Amino acid sequence: MNGTDPSPSELAEFRAEVAAWLEQHKPADPGFLLPQTFMEVGSDQQLEFLREWQHKLWSAGYLGVHWPSEYGGRGMHAAFQHEVDRELRRQRTPITFNVIGLGWAGPLILDIGTDQQKALYIKGILSAEDIWCQGFSEPDHGSDLGNAQTRAVRDGDDYVINGSKIWTTMGNYARYMILLARTDPSAERKYDGLSFFLSPMEARGIETRPIQKITGEYGFTETFFTDARIPASCLIGGEGNGWRVAMQTLQYERGAAAGAAGGLPQVRISVSDLIDDIRHLRRDGQPLLEDPVVRDRLVELIMEEKALGLADRRTGLPGLNTDYPLSLPLSFKLRASEYQRRMRQYGLELQGGLGSLYVGDEQAVAGGFWQRAYFNNFATTIGGGTSQIQANIIGEQVLGLPKS
Amino acid sequence: MPMNNMQMVFGDEQGMLLDSARAFCRDRSTMPAVRALLPSAQGFDPQVWQQMAALGWLGVAVAEDFGGSGLGISSAVPLVECMGKHLLTTPFIDTTLVARVLQQAAGSDLSQRYLPDIVGGQIASLALLESEDWGDPAIGVTATPAKSGLQLSGAKTQVAYAEVAELFLVSVMYQGVARLLVVPTAAVPSAAVSRQTCIDETRRCARVDFSGVSVGMENLLPGDADSTLREVMLLGALLYAAEAAGSAAACMDLTAEYLKTRHQFGRPIGSYQALKHPMVEVLVAMENARSFVYHAASLVNEATPDRDAESACRMAKAQASEALKFAGDRAVQFHGGMGFTYECDAQLYIRRAQWSQQVFGDAYHHRKRLASLLLDS
Ligand SMILES: Cc1cc2nc3c(=O)[nH]c(=O)nc-3n(C[C@H](O)[C@H](O)[C@H](O)COP(=O)(O)OP(=O)(O)OC[C@H]3O[C@@H](n4cnc5c(N)ncnc54)[C@H](O)[C@@H]3O)c2cc1C
């Protein structure tokens, strides 16, 4: 946070300026499919388009508004960035796709990095010159992240890395990776043997292999390390502290901690979009929206979406959260991602026979938007810690239940 | 679309009210005290009721002119949530609703006659329901002009605390129009009040047969009652939703505590995800209910509820009903054999859940009306 809270009129003025700029500069429909989240950047064409858009937004002064000016931000109050973010949502712009940099690595480096690391990395994150990826999950260790086995061995001024990571979003486009690796395999607790690196992806011995996704598109890779050498200055948070740093990173990722540069990490999809798209469809010879069971289910979904917005609002009123203070922030990811899954799944069910068509079919409702959106949503119920893992965390930390 | 209204306010005044409500309910409504009242005739402690009056709680919906605090009905919400959390059950909700109606719709003569007494602790109750159907707009009780005013015919059911109330606010048909009528209980013979057996044993209610009762013309509230009835149905839904949200939280805490202490197979049973994960669902359902309740409370104060306020009250009741129903059901199951006993407090919540979900309309009742508000644009 910088300075005192801005006045509503200052914010409104800023918002109007952003709105006007966006009206004029937001990109037109490129004529090819754009990613709904940063986890779906699967083609060079998409990448270049999104890189150019993020660069333009940052150049105009609308990304990382509250990040320090010496590193490419503007040193303003975070409330100004929130205004930008809301306007991006409202005007339905393309996403700001460098999310691992903007949302997780960036705030982490600003919070605990050295001045040298800040100078080296932050500006490139904002400008989209440097794309970031995350090397946490391994083929044999996903939810059990603390058991990661990729090795990092100190050798003079370098660390030598061996092993493999998987599900690396944008692994084939990234310049840097936040990497969790094992520096001390003999540590008594598995967590204590881990260290956290800001690793270059261009080092010799690092290779990526794209993996095709459920949608048929691309977006993540398997990443192999074979005697890859990275400078020891890439270490962040100190050797042996990797688990603590990784947990801090996940707080940003799950929306439980502030600090992100802002932007639009994913296209906002609302049940009201769904209602618009299916309004013309029929069931049993009647308009779909006259079916009482359909109506009831839609109202449940509308309520669930509204409850998410109200919970956000409530988070800002601490007096209403005194009895379970961690409950809303820790459950944000679970509530939002599971709601979207149910809502999008219903979006297919409502289409009747048209629900069996897919993207590419001329008759598919909204071009197969809901089909693609439903499948893609599993990225949010699996990635960043699965819903089941989130439920463990909430049960243990909010309700005080014993560990599983 | 009412979906976009996210208003929620919580000021210092409400914070202070909440703090004092917390302390009061914790002290006055311990579990042994709740248990001791279950078999009692009245169902509540008259001393506690008088203390609530002394704290000014019965006057939140009443203007200063009539002895109230003029804080507004929304201030009753944190009070009721606290009462729900501690199962402190009194005629508070119904009395507050009657006070609100008199304040808004009665005109100054009736208000002057009844409101100051209500603020001072006189119990008032709503007599609206006639059958199992909370959604039935028809009114069967009639008021016909007679020599000395109005003569009533017909009965109401589930009238809260009817045996101790001093006045009823009754919906009647008068010359073909729905009207509201103040009936002092002095005008109702005691044989006309027959106690009903509530599934939630912390409450009391009765069937009241108004046939043959006569009251003065001046007890008729002015004007058509349709909009007042609509409003009181929404506010009743909101207050019972706030109470249910509080009870759901208490029920969740009770179960979580058991899951930490009870061991089987050498582990605390709360370490099993088959129990842990549903508890998280209870938490989320309860928190969502609270969010709707606070949102609705921010929209209902003075004016008659607009579309946004209506939608918020309905969402609050629909969500809170489901949350408490789920919490109570899981509480019994997760206590095992102990959960099947009368001694286990889980029974208090599962019983309350069945009462709460029906009063002022169940979840489906409200979602059905929300569908019209939200989908038929
Ligand atoms: C689209 C997408 C993008 C991703 N991007 C990245 C990325 O950029 N970088 C990165 O490092 N990772 C990324 N991931 C990986 C993601 O973090 C892991 O997939 C996730 O943590 C789960 O690990 P897993 O796949 O090994 O599944 P597993 O851990 O094997 O889980 C399998 C199933 O078992 C359940 N399960 C496991 N343990 C428990 C438990 N203790 N209690 C209850 N249930 C349990 C899980 O919920 C799941 O349903 C991405 C994943 C997806 C889908």
Q: Which structural class do you get from the secondary structure elements of chain B? A: alpha+beta
Count of domain modules of chain A: 3
**Helical proportion of chain B, percent range:** 40-55%
Q: Order of strands across the widest beta sheet of chain A?
A: 2-3-7-6
Count of helix runs of chain A: 11
**What is the β-strand count of chain A?**
9
Instruction: Tell me which CATH architecture of the largest domain in chain B applies here.
Output: Up-down Bundle
Q: Helix fraction of chain A?
A: 40-55%
Number of strands of chain B: 11
Mean pLDDT of chain B, to the nearest integer, reads 96
> How many domains make up the coordinates of chain B?
3
CATH names the topology of the largest domain in chain A as Butyryl-CoA Dehydrogenase, subunit A, domain 3
> Would you tell me the overall average pLDDT of chain A?
95
Number of helices of chain B: 12
What layout of secondary structure does this protein have?
The complex is a heterodimer of chains A (404) and B (377).
Chain A: H1 8-25, H2 44-59, H3 78-90, H4 99-112, H5 115-127, E1 132-135, E2 151-155, E3 158-169, E4 176-182, E5 194-200, E6 206-212, E7 218-231, H6 242-253, H7 271-278, E8 282-283, E9 286-287, H8 292-315, H9 327-349, H10 369-382, H11 387-397
Parallel strand pairs in A: 1-4
Antiparallel strand pairs in A: 2-3, 3-7, 4-5, 6-7, 8-9
Chain B: H1 12-28, H2 31-37, H3 46-54, H4 76-85, H5 92-105, H6 108-119, E1 124-127, E2 142-146, E3 149-153, E4 155-160, E5 167-174, E6 177-184, E7 193-196, E8 205-209, E9 214-215, H7 226-261, E10 263-264, E11 267-268, H8 273-297, H9 307-334, H10 336-339, H11 346-358, H12 363-375
Parallel strand pairs in B: 1-5, 2-5
Antiparallel strand pairs in B: 2-3, 3-9, 4-8, 5-6, 7-8, 10-11
Flavin-adenine dinucleotide binds next to β1, β3, α10 and α11 of chain A.
Question: How would you describe this protein?
Answer:
The complex is a heterodimer of chains A (404) and B (377). Chain A has 404 residues and is α+β, with helices and mostly antiparallel strands. Chain A has three domains: 8-129, Butyryl-Coa Dehydrogenase, subunit A, domain 1 (Orthogonal Bundle), CATH 1.10.540.10; 133-253, Butyryl-CoA Dehydrogenase, subunit A, domain 2 (Beta Barrel), CATH 2.40.110; 271-398, Butyryl-CoA Dehydrogenase, subunit A, domain 3, CATH 1.20.140.10. Chain A has eleven helices and nine strands. In chain A, strands 2-3-7-6 form a four-stranded antiparallel sheet, with no helix packed on it. Chain A has a three-stranded mixed sheet with strand order 1-4-5. In chain A, helix 9 runs antiparallel to helix 10 and helix 9 packs antiparallel against helix 11 (387-397). Chain B is an alpha+beta fold and 377 residues long. Chain B has three domains: 2-94, Orthogonal Bundle (Butyryl-Coa Dehydrogenase, subunit A, domain 1); 126-219, Butyryl-CoA Dehydrogenase, subunit A, domain 2, CATH 2.40.110.10; 226-375, Butyryl-CoA Dehydrogenase, subunit A, domain 3 (Up-down Bundle), CATH 1.20.140. Helices cover 50% and strands 14% of the residues of chain B. Chain B is built from twelve helices and eleven strands. In chain B, strands 1, 2, 3, 5, 6 and 9 form a six-stranded mixed sheet that branches. In chain B, strands 4-8-7 form a three-stranded antiparallel sheet, with no helix packed on it. In chain B, strands 10-11 form a two-stranded antiparallel ribbon. In chain B, strand 7 and strand 8 (205-209) form a beta hairpin. Chain B is globular, with a radius of gyration of 21 Å. The chains are: A alpha+beta (404), B alpha+beta (377). At the A-B interface, helix 8, helix 9 and helix 11 of A face helix 1, helix 7, strand 11, helix 8 and helix 9 of B. Bound molecules: flavin-adenine dinucleotide. Flavin-adenine dinucleotide is lined by residues 39, 133-137, 142-143, 167-169, 220, 379, 382-386, 388-389, 392, 404 of chain A. Chain A: It holds the Pfam family Acyl-CoA_dh_M. Chain A: InterPro entries: Acyl-CoA_Oxase/DH_mid-dom, Acyl-CoA_Oxase/DH_mid-dom_sf, AcylCo_DH-like_C, AcylCo_DH/oxidase_C, AcylCoA_DH/ox_N, AcylCoA_DH/ox_N_sf, AcylCoA_DH/oxidase_NM_dom_sf, Mycobact_Acyl-CoA_DH. Chain A: Residues 45-129 form the Acyl-CoA dehydrogenase/oxidase N-terminal domain.
